[in-house]
């Protein structure tokens, strides 16, 4: 009775789930779910036969495998999930969740054509046969599918005839096992092994391939092995296989054991130097690594097994062809359970998994000679001595030392050296405060006297900046490597906001690759990111940054992540700071290999860093090195960590340093004597003393601070002393027309959307005629003219290729072939590149990336556009810490443009405001000080950023070009109105963008005589910004008002005192008012009002005048979502403006 069985399944599943079946510590969640919901439900053979169709497992005839589905030698073995289910592709991924969805049942059912009766023969030949892609089509042991089917009884009933049909089938010939086409992948692999060495495969394979070579057909070529020929039959005619007996069965179990070490070995690796916590937060050995799991006892340890596929094949050298079970276990423990834990089986690419296996499953993965050990020792000694020296000289200073993870320094240097050997010329690094001074001194090679000078606190060359604490500063140096090559090392400056620098590093790396014409190969530049364990697991920007790894316009060819895993976050235990076994588990989302390593083993750390460099060079993918270590002192050197971690810090007090342990090992093995090591220690300390003496007279240069050095560009010091010229930004008319013709046409045979074809034609016509140029056309003219002048242009953000408001259409799609065409890249063979790229749905990560991109060269225009201005606050950290304050803190120069949609159109609180007020609050000019003439000339050089809200296409054109047509760089925030993109009045003539024209910071009332009264009769002078100007203009016309002048502030910051002040006196009797569509506590009002008063104090007729306000009332929600209320509010402030 199916209903009765159904009840038993549910009851048994619930009970097993409640008791935590499959939740043995060390199991990955996906495996636990699979075991819980699938295998644990198979209460008995009868139940299995009933539920088989649910699992999409057609039985021909129903198969009974004694010992697999009942308690015995393999109770719920995850390796046997692979054997029975085999649903994870060529590498048998036990850790990766399935992609099967509940609705996929019937599709999967149609795909299940393989006859499971072939399974016994495959079992006899070892588990790799069940890890092939074809076997993935056999069954679908998928948690999501199973849950879905158990909720839908109708599907289960409908599938029962399938069982009856297959149950009555004639038992197949055992020879079919090799003839089945779905096994082609595995057979091919075995054939390759056989061709290389016939003895490397089982005797049955030897007979099979030998028969094929002699011309036999596939079924006749197979000779069943002895264990399979006499398979007994169950009462119902089903063949059974006694897995618990026979040499072939033992061979299979050894393969499963080796596989278990590959999958689970890292869970029991010797990773924690203190022995307080396991790195994966568990202290239970996975059952698959126990002898009893396979029905073995101590008596079986001396059994011999042949090495080959699945059983340590790379140990079959120098005449060694077999090992005892004891030796196999000891070897697997040495490889996977010593100082390094390799976690890589989650990677879906078999070749990549094999590459790692080939590097680590060898007798000596690393065997450093005397010179190499001397180098590791020297680097480790500098690392430890540097920290001790600083502590002795400045005992009360915070330095966030590296004590407890000193092996990071030899590891990083080995990573850099190996990467340079692979062709890397530039390495961009980002890291938090922990160990930063040590990295600056010993990796980047910033002069130690310069670092000590910062401790002393002299202030000389850095008086142009407010500065930052020494453990936040960036640096840019070129240093040699042991191979004789040179490498440029750049450590980006960062705030205390952990991981905020991650996307900045990637953006800078990508820009370096662009200017080296290396965006495809990704060889010349590489990003290296250092993380803390708590931050890597906890900060969302880590995933936002990793999510860019495979995106065509954001990838950098792999980032190397080094986690300084000191097993604590300030005072928080890792058990309370992450929900995953490892802090590095997020990296599995992008299929990055993870190398866990004991931080006290300097040679192991060096090896995995070299391995990471090799991985990145070969596969151009991210890789993670998780250095499990400790923090010898508190969060900073004045903190008392024993308040919250007493047990850990008792262990730390007794723990010898990595240098002590390494020197003892070198002395013991006879590589160096104690005297050799002591002499070198004294020499290092003496060098540090010399640096301390020199630090008192050291004169720092600003170039040391710069995270990007712009050769040939004025230095910050030069910019502070010079008044740089203002240049016109107009373009020759013929250049405009050339661009206009290119952007309005497509290649022959290309089929654009018919509506878009009309839009493009209209753009070309407006440029040709020189009138009616709209916003998007003006933007295209600006971008096109810049790339023709050899300025690289990059536009990035969500949906920027088309434009959120369907305004840009920078990428045209063929309606027949979906081919893409970018007109601005077809202007000429010698133009610079125009890059426009849709980003991931990320503001923090993408804005940080583009900021980093803008740091590399002054000869690029980098623009990030928000989908809606409201969403930019997701990137507030980048705005506050890098864009607004980066230059002041770190002398970090950037010409980044932020393009921000803004405007009140009744679209609600999340689609109206770009938060102008927040950006203006970050501006650093004084509202009550009128700049003297010498300062007025250089306000743009001295400001921290520029904020504009242009109202004409021509002004937008000029402000974009102005960004690069000057000898300095400042961030630019451009607000643009959605409603003005197609407004009939918002058009410009080509003459406004040619010859000597430039950006108009202030657009005064044009004062047509037929519209307004004489200037001295104007009763009110309204000043405004943005789209509200056109609302006011229409209201003035509709009302017939002739005594109100309306002027526009196109640039809000730096405030255009020099233009506004003289114009105010044009209307001597006018009342001053500032009008905005935003609420009182939003918009530009609080910034503009005091500055209008400051300007009016310099006039003849308006001294001491504070402008009146017209706008919406203050509100906590920036805009209403009601069209009616929006209209009513607009009418109210318009009424106030003209009252």
UniProtKB/TrEMBL annotation:
Q: What class of enzyme is it?
A: oxidoreductase
Q: Where in the cell is it found?
A: Mitochondrion matrix
Q: Which residues form the signal peptide?
A: none
Q: GO molecular-function annotation terms?
A: metal ion binding; oxoglutarate dehydrogenase (succinyl-transferring) activity; thiamine pyrophosphate binding
- Alphabetic keyword roster: Magnesium, Metal-binding, Mitochondrion, Oxidoreductase, Thiamine pyrophosphate, Transit peptide, Tricarboxylic acid cycle
Its cellular-component GO annotations read: mitochondrial matrix; oxoglutarate dehydrogenase complex
Spell out the reaction equation it catalyses.
N(6)-[(R)-lipoyl]-L-lysyl-[protein] + 2-oxoglutarate + H(+) = N(6)-[(R)-S(8)-succinyldihydrolipoyl]-L-lysyl-[protein] + CO2
**EC no.?**
1.2.4.2
Positions the record marks as coiled coil are none
Per its UniProt record, the required cofactor names are: Mg(2+); thiamine diphosphate
Q: Name one Pfam family in it.
A: Transket_pyr
Chief location of this protein within or outside the cell: mitochondrion
The record, for InterPro entries, names: 2-oxogl_dehyd_N, 2oxoglutarate_DH_E1, DH_E1, KGD_C_sf, ODO-1/KGD_C, THDP-binding, Transketolase-like_Pyr-bd
A GO BP term here is:
tricarboxylic acid cycle
Q: Which residues form the Transketolase-like pyrimidine-binding domain?
A: 773-983
Protein function: The 2-oxoglutarate dehydrogenase complex catalyzes the overall conversion of 2-oxoglutarate to succinyl-CoA and CO(2). It contains multiple copies of three enzymatic components: 2-oxoglutarate dehydrogenase (E1), dihydrolipoamide succinyltransferase (E2) and lipoamide dehydrogenase (E3).
* PANTHER family (alphabetical): 2-OXOADIPATE DEHYDROGENASE COMPLEX COMPONENT E1 (PTHR23152:SF4), 2-OXOGLUTARATE DEHYDROGENASE (PTHR23152)
The protein, known as? 2-oxoglutarate dehydrogenase, mitochondrial
Species: Rhizoctonia solani
């Amino acid at each position: 009775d199916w209903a009765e069985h159904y009840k038993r399944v549910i009851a048994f599943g619930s009970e097993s789930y409640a008791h935590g079946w499959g939740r043995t510590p060390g199991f990955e969640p996906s495996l636990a779910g699979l075991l819980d919901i699938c295998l644990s439900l198979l209460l008995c053979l009868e139940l299995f036969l009933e539920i088989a169709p649910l699992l999409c497992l057609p039985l021909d005839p129903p198969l009974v495998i004694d010992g697999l589905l009942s308690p015995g030698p393999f109770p719920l073995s995850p390796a046997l999930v692979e054997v029975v289910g085999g649903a994870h592709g060529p590498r048998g991924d036990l850790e990766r969740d399935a992609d099967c969805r509940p609705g996929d049942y019937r599709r999967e059912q149609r795909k299940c054509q393989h006859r499971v009766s072939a399974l016994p023969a495959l079992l006899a030949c070892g588990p790799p046969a069940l890890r092939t892609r074809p076997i993935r089509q056999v069954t679908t042991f998928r948690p999501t599918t199973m849950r879905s089917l158990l909720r839908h009884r109708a599907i289960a009933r409908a599938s029962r005839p399938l069982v009856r049909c297959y149950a009555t089938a004639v038992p197949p010939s055992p020879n079919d096992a090799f003839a089945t086409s779905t096994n082609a992948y595995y057979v091919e692999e075995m054939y390759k092994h056989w061709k290389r060495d016939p003895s490397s495969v089982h005797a049955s394979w030897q007979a099979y391939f030998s028969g094929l070579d002699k011309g036999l057909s596939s079924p006749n070529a197979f000779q069943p092995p002895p264990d399979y020929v006499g398979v007994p039959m169950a009462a119902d005619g089903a063949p059974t296989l006694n897995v618990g007996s026979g040499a072939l069965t033992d061979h299979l179990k050894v393969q499963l054991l080796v596989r278990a070490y590959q999958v689970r070995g890292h869970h029991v690796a010797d990773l924690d130097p203190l022995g307080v916590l396991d790195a994966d937060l568990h202290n239970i050995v996975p059952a698959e690594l126990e002898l009893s799991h396979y029905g073995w006892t101590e008596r079986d340890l001396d059994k011999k097994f042949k090495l080959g596929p699945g059983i340590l094949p790379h140990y079959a050298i120098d005449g060694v062809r077999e090992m005892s079970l004891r030796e196999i276990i000891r070897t697997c423990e040495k490889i996977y359970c010593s100082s390094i834990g390799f976690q890589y089986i989650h990677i879906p690419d078999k070749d990549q998994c094999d590459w790692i296996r080939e590097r680590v499953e060898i007798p000596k993965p690393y065997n450093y000679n005397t010179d190499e050990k001397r180098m590791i020792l020297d680097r480790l000694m500098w690392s430890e001595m540097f920290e001790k020296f600083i502590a002795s000289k400045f005992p009360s200073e915070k330095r966030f030392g590296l004590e407890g993870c000193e092996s990071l320094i030899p590891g990083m240097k080995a990573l850099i050296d190996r990467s340079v050997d692979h062709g890397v010329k530039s390495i961009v690094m980002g890291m938090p405060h922990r160990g930063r001074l040590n990295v600056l001194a010993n990796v980047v090679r910033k002069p130690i006297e310069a670092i000590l000078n910062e401790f002393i606190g002299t202030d000389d060359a850095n008086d142009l900046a407010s500065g930052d604490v020494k453990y936040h500063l960036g640096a840019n140096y070129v240093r040699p490597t042991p191979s004789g090559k040179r490498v440029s090392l750049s450590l980006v400056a960062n705030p205390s906001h952990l991981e905020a620098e991650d996307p900045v590093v990637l953006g800078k790396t990508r820009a370096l690759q662009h200017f080296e014409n290396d965006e495809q190969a990704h060889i010349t530049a590489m990003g290296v990111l250092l993380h803390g364990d708590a931050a890597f697991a906890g900060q969302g920007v880590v995933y936002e940054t990793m999510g860019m790894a495979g995106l065509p316009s954001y990838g950098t060819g792999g980032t190397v992540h080094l986690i300084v895993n000191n097993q604590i976050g300030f005072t928080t235990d890792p058990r309370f700071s992450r929900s995953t076994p490892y802090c590095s588990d997020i990296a599995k989302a992008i299929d990055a290999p993870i190398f866990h390593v004991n931080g006290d083993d300097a040679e192991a750390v060096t090896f995995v860093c070299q391995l990471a460099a090799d991985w990145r060079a070969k596969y151009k993918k991210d890789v993670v090195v998780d250095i499990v270590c400790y923090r010898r002192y508190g969060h900073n050197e004045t903190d008392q960590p024993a308040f919250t971690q007493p047990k850990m810090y008792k262990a730390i007090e007794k723990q010898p340093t990595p240098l002590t342990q390494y020197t003892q090992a070198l002395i013991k093995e006879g590589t160096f004597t104690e005297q050799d090591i002591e002499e070198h220690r004294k020499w290092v300390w003496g060098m540090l003393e010399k640096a301390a003496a020199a630090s008192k007279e050291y004169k720092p240069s600003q170039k040391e601070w710069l995270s990007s050095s712009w050769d040939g560009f004025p230095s910050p010091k030069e910019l502070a002393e010079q008044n740089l010229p203002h240049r016109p930004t107009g373009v020759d008319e013929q250049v405009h027309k050339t661009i206009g013709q290119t952007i309005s046409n497509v290649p022959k045979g290309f089929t654009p959307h018919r509506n878009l074809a009309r839009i493009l034609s209209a753009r070309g016509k407006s440029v040709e005629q020189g009138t009616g140029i709209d916003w998007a056309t003006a933007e295209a003219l600006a971008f096109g003219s810049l790339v023709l002048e050899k300025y690289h242009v990059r536009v990035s953000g969500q949906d920027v290729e088309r434009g959120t408001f369907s305004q840009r259409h920078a990428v045209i799609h063929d309606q027949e072939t979906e081919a893409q065409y970018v007109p601005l890249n077809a202007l000429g063979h010698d133009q610079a590149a125009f890059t426009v790229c849709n980003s991931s749905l990320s503001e923090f990560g993408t804005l940080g990336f583009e900021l980093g991109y803008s740091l590399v060269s002054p000869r690029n225009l980098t623009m990030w556009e928000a989908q809606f201005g409201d969403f930019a606050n997701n990137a507030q950290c980048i705005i506050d810490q890098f864009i607004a304050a980066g230059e002041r803190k770190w002398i970090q120069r950037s010409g980044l443009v932020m393009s921000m949609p803004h405007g009140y159109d009744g679209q609600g609180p999340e689609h109206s405001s770009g938060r102008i007020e927040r950006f203006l609050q970050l501006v650093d000019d004084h509202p009550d000080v009128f700049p003297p003439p010498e300062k007025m000339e250089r306000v743009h050089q001295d400001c921290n950023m520029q904020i504009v809200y242009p109202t004409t296409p021509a002004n937008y054109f000029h402000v974009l070009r102005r960004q690069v047509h000057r000898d300095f760089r400042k961030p630019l925030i451009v607000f643009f109105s959605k409603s003005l993109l197609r407004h009939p009045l918002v058009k410009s003539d080509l003459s406004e963008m040619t010859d000597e024209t430039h950006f108009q910071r202030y657009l005064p009332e044009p004062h047509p005589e037929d519209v307004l009264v004489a200037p001295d009769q104007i009763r009110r002078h309204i000043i405004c910004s943005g789209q509200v100007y056109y609302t006011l203009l229409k209201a003035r016309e509709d009302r017939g008002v002739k005594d109100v002048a309306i002027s526009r502030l196109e640039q809000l910051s730096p405030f255009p005192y020099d233009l506004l002040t003289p114009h105010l006196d044009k209307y001597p009797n006018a009342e001053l008012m500032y009008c905005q569509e935003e609420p009182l506590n939003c918009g530009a009002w609080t910034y503009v009002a005091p500055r209008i008063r400051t300007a009016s104090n310099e006039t003849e007729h308006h001294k001491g005048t504070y402008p009146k306000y017209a706008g919406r009332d203050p509100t906590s929600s920036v805009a209403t979502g009601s069209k009616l209320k929006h209209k009513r509010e607009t009418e109210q402030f318009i009424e106030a403006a003209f009252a």
